[in-house]
Design a protein that fits this description.
This protein has 219 residues and is of the alpha/beta class. The protein contains 7 helices and 11 strands.
Amino acid sequence: MYVVILGCSAIGYYLAKVLLAAGHEVMVIERNHTRCQLLWNELGSVVTQGDGTDERTLKEAGVARADIFIAVTGLDETNLVACQMAKHVFQVPYTMSLVRDTKNEPVFHVLGINVVVNATHSVVAQLEEGIPGRPLLHLMNLRVPDLELVSVSVPEDAGVIGKRLDEVELPPRSFISLVIKKNQASLPSNDLILEAQDQVVAVTMIDEEQTLYEILTGV
């Protein structure tokens, strides 16, 4: 498999090393001369210097025969334009991109980027996991704009304890997809009883997230 990576920051660097170790053919495109030289010194001729939004640079990097194009620069606009060129000019079948500004993520999905990784969301989710007693975790943003998957831990004094799921009035565009109890995970059913320390995995809209949280954790 031939993978072209745009961007040689820490993410691009380690991604290139992992893919090479797995036996894949890799080419990294990097604009910064110093970064190019550092990667060249360590990994050899798997890096080319140039502008990833320039058609000639992409052509020289062999993007036309790439199986996957991955953009991980620090600029969302650069990542988006490069992925669009890879997909529509060079007919790369699979594109992936890093997004740093969460407001830009829906555009990437609408324009057909196959995999969109929200860097801010990933960092926030990991930090949330480390906060003791934090009852809400962002698991992932879904492909539909403003739709996300969250996990809410039901506290000891929550008003929903002892209620059946069909007695819990959720926001209109939110629904429960899984309830994780102490010993098992259960699919949602009307007669399932909520208990303290249950983890409720739900699909919700961003503007309904706070309401959902208050319903499942409020006294």
